[in-house]
Hints:
Blueprint: H1 6-15, E1 25-34, E2 43-45, H2 47-59, E3 62-65, E4 80-90, E5 93-103, E6 107-108, E7 111-112, H3 113-122, E8 127-139, E9 159-160, E10 163-164, E11 167-180, E12 195-196, E13 210-213, E14 218-220, E15 227-232, E16 236-242, E17 246-247, H4 248-256, H5 263-293, H6 299-334, H7 340-347, H8 352-369, E18 376-378, E19 381-383, H9 406-421
Amino acid sequence: xxxxxAEQLAKINQKALVSLTDEQVNVFQARIIGxxxxxKYMMKVTPNFLRKMADQVKEGVALLVxxxxxxxxxxxxxxxxxxxxKIVEEGGELELYGDHYMAxxxxxxxxxxxxxxxGIDAGTIFDTSAGFVSTKHTCSICGGDYFRGSECxxxxxxxxxxxxxxxxxxxxxxxxxxxxxxGGYEGAGITRGxxxxxxxxEADDQQxxxxxxxxxxxxxxxxxxxxxxxxxxxxxxxxxxxxxHQTLEQAKIQAEGDDTVTEEQKAALAAAQTQATAxxxxxxxxxxxxxxxxxxxxxxxxxxLTALSAQAADGAAYKVKVTEQACGAxxxxxGDAFNVEAxxxxxxxxxxxxxxxxxxxxxxxxxxxxxxxxxxTEGDNLDLPAGAANGTPPANAQANGAQKTPEQxxxxxxxxxxxxxxxxxxxxxxxxxx
Length: 434
């Protein structure tokens, strides 16, 4: 680890009770916390709170190992202390950096500052975790106290008119910064169990306050209003509160049986519960819609639906066109035996590909019945198929050498149409030829 510069040593000696030399201490810098969105709890530390923490780090907070105080009955031995700080803008967010120092040759609980220094230099100890308390929790949507149902009915992580609700930690204090790593001593790593504020030496019959992880749906902090956070770049965020906290549902139940709660507050809690439930369901539905549409973001859903609507309109128009063509061909092929309206109803239940097949069948039969092209006129001369003038049935151009009469062609068209229409249950709508 580095030796302190003359300027750093002067700041360190303002904290020390006896003057230290640059040979007696090691120094290092660590990023402690910043204003970026903290995903797990959908919250942010405000610049105002970050500046307050920067002042406290400059004054000096303890450097611990693995937040031992969170167990409450464990001995919290500081292995070092902060002595300076700075706030740096990175990627549009503010980050708090703290300068730490450790006196050489200190040892407690089987861990020495020299061992820690070697681990830091070797890169095997590389993560620090800030322990801090927030006392002011502001809703990013309405600006009210997030944990007071009378002031705020929004739910963290939900969107309101396109803006996400976040809990803004706007005041509090930083308690310490911990080195966290696996191995080296018993109990290494962040503890996630319930906490107790009862000190080790305290009598058993004294009152004990239990702490537990903060649920994401909590909407009240009835204790002292504090939330304890252990924040690590690698381990993420862990929050603990007194068991006196309430979830939104619990607050609603209590309010309904409390005569001191106004009807307006009860209504606000009920509305918050309804809205939270609806939004949770909506988020689940939106996730399914994103998967079905093949988009990644909610913002892309509208554009995708607009494109699909345009395609659907084009498809509907084309289906109407093909249906009209099929019915027209059917009339030419079968004459009065063809029921146009019933056929349109039947075709409406078929996909376009089936309607196209029926249209092709009727068109082929119509052309064959009319001699391959229907009636053609040029002045007063009728362009009729050979033999048509003396009543001889025209040859079937579609028959590939197998001659059929128009009556046979009509029956064949009917049979094929019935086969296609039977899929929709309309196979019996065809009229018999008169």
